[in-house]
Design goal:
Distance between the termini: 37 Å
Order of helices and strands: HHHHHHH
Number of domains: 1
Pfam family, one: DUF4818
Shape: extended
Keywords: Membrane, Transmembrane, Transmembrane helix
InterPro entries: DUF4818
Number of helices: 7
């Protein structure tokens, strides 16, 4: 699991408009709330995958070297996902929504059907409000998928009712808090044990 501080710092750096590897060319075209929702999804995804850029057989890096490398990898992943995945997909999706009335009109003309009445009502899809809602819906879709995949929520429980779903979320939050504090304690003990082993190995070699 990636370190939360490194990933949070990488997302904060991107929000502030500071880019180290990739500068988005069309980020201004995307609504800000949509961009933030996608960043939350990226945060949870990176938090649940290992960000160590070296094999597990390598010895762990000491502070602050390990944190710096994980931060740089997190920055790279955030910038790539936003610049090369989210921005193109979002703009293509909004373009598709905007062109739905024209596509229906052309398809109706091909088969010889007068669809003017339908396409006139669909002109609302070209409005800024509908495009913003469509953009938010797409980003919300990725956010919900990320939360479900990372086991933050369990959407299957919605079949049992909203109260059971919310109760499960509270249980998961408590369990995560206990697990997070336990991992911090075990990490400190592991670092101290590794240091003792390294010292004893050096002493035997001398």
């Amino acid at each position: 699991m990636g370190r939360v501080l490194a990933i949070a710092a990488a997302c904060s750096l991107h929000i502030s408009g500071t880019y180290l590897f990739r500068t988005p060319s069309n980020l201004d075209c995307i609504p800000y709330e949509t961009y933030l929702m996608f960043l939350v999804a990226v945060f949870y995804l990176l938090w649940n995958v290992p960000l160590n850029p070296y094999p597990s057989c390598f010895r762990s890096l000491r502070k602050p070297a390990g944190e710096i490398i994980e931060f740089l990898v997190a920055v790279l992943m955030v910038e790539l996902l936003v610049s090369d995945f989210w921005c193109p997909l979002q703009l293509k999706f909004m373009t598709f929504i905007r062109t739905i009335p024209d596509n229906i009109y052309e398809a109706a003309n091909v088969v010889g059907v007068d669809a003017t009445c339908i396409t006139d009502h669909l002109e609302i899809l070209k409005s800024d409000g509908v495009l913003t809602v469509s953009s938010d819906a797409l980003s919300l879709f990725f956010l919900v998928c990320a939360l479900h995949s990372c086991k933050v929520v369990d959407l299957r429980l919605l079949k049992c009712g909203v109260p059971i779903f919310t109760k499960d979320i509270s249980k998961r939050a408590v369990k995560f808090a206990k697990r997070f504090t336990a991992k911090k304690g075990s990490r400190r003990r592991r670092y101290s044990t590794d240091s003792e082993l390294d010292w004893s190995t050096d002493s035997e070699g001398n």
